[in-house]
Amino acid sequence: MAASVLFDAPGPKAKVRNNVLAVVTILVVAGIIAFLVIQLGKAGQFEAKKWSIFSYPLVQRSFAEATLATLKAFGLAAALSLVLGFLLALGRLSDHGWVRAPVTWIVELFRAVPLLILMMLFYYGLPTVGIKMTPFVAVVVGLTLYNGAVLSEVFRAGVNALPRGQAEAAYAVGLRKGQVMTSILLPQAIKSMLPAIIAQLVVILKDTALGFIITYTELLYYVKYLGTQVQFGSPIIPAAMVGAVIYIGMCLILSGLAKYAEHKINKSPKVAKSKAVMDVEDAGAAPMNL
Amino acid sequence: MDTLLDNLDVFTKGFGTTLVLFAWSAVFALILGTVVAAMRVAPVPIMRAVGTVYVNTVRNTPLTLVMMFFALGYPQLGLPKLDYVPLAIIALTLYTATYVAETLRSGINTVPLGQAEAARAIGLTFGQSLGQIILPQAIRAVVPPMFNVLIALLKNTTIAAGFSVMEAGAIRAFLSERGEPALVVLLWVAAVFVVLVMVLSLLQRYFEKKWRVA
Asked: Do the chains contact at B47 and A25, CB–CB below 8 Å?
């Protein structure tokens, strides 16, 4: 439903009212921003001393390195969770109960445990039984297991949303079960679910920030480290602002990609439209993760 | 089992705080999210723009960073002192409200066109048609995804452990001082979370059935 269905074209009275509301909105938002800026200024957050730290080449290079560490964890976790999601989806769609049941349990389990607890399990828990891993490995494994489980649900929803005729036709021309799945159903499902899949990748990128709690030296860890530099007046707020800009920039690029994919798919006649996407949202598989 | 029973005090305190964080953030996020969703479909373009910018910015920021702003940044602002728990609730609310708003907005889109047209035809204003016709129907349609948002919120409360809030995510740090094996402790924490999520899933199924759109 387009937004415009909810209200009539404004007449003279409504126009005046809308203008008043617009002015009020602007005033309120401007008031909040002004309050924040004034408070920040009063607290001395805009002092040159606090921002001068960013003018050092070493700091700039470390920022780049920290961003790279974030991207490294993101890239590896994204690739691995796509593979894992693919495998788990195959398992959940299996015709054999003894494959389906345990895979279903695994998926439900990893979706129910908070990602941070999962990472802690690997980083703090496993060493007590003699399996040591670096923070990087713990972050990647945690991200992979959680997002793999979520992505498998996305894949599965995509397959279930396909018209039944696709599988029936594939069987009719004599393809085997595995072939039907891998060469007919999944390619179509992945294409129609692409927006949901990319949205999940944004989640992976955001969740790499959890790594800082288990001491993985990524972007947020570096932001906090900068915040402890007393000789620059503990510039935690300036550092967090810079970090936020980097994170939001990276996520917006990915989100933009998702929008673009959705746009392409909605225009393409070959895909079962975004109906599949909507079905998933109804089933709640796609955006459950925040 | 001993690990759980011997340290029941820490476990109850931890999960108690988790539930406090969850309950308050859920209430505030649902309210704020509804307001933002209304803003995003409002007749005033500026309101729509503000809503869109807020949602797009916060959704693309890691919750950990949002919490860092509040937990570490806020005390430097010279504003009235706040405890870490209310600060965590503010951060969780601001973050979750964007997801609530987006979920509601997708629900508004599922309400048949005729409903809004009929509401306009009998002369209801935007506020009336949204509040009495569209949203009540939209809310029924979004029960399952809304519960998913709440489940995610419950899990996200663990992040507060990174910022001096004694809740479920911090149980490990507490108990490592008592010399408990971290693995067992964390497995118990995970198990409790699985149970809590299951409770929410049951509620989800109950309301889904009860409020099914005819």
From this structure: yes
* B24 to chain A, closest Cα gap in Å: 18
Residue found under tokens 């401007």 = A30
Residue A251 · residue A199 · CB < 8 Å:
no
What does each C-alpha distance from B111 to A67, A203, B149 come to in angstroms? Answer: 43, 28, 20
Q: Is the dihedral of CA B121, B126, B132, B136 positive or negative?
A: positive
CATH architecture entry for A47-288: Orthogonal Bundle (1.10)
Residue A223 forms contact with B (CB below 8 Å):
yes
A3: contact with B, CB 8 A cutoff: yes
Nearest CA in chain A to B40: A3
A184-220: per-residue pLDDT in tens?
888 888 888 888 888 889 889 988 988 888 888 888 8
Report chain A residues whose CB lies below 8 A from the CB of B130.
Answer: 6
Q: Which domains does chain B have, with CATH numbers?
A: 2-210 (1.10.3720.10)
In three state form, how does the secondary structure of B95-112 look?
A: HHHHHHHHHHHHHHHHCC
What's the complex ipTM?
0.85
Q: What is the pLDDT of residues A144-155, one digit of tens each?
A: 999 999 999 888
CB-CB neighbors (< 8 A) of B149 in chain A? 287-288, 290
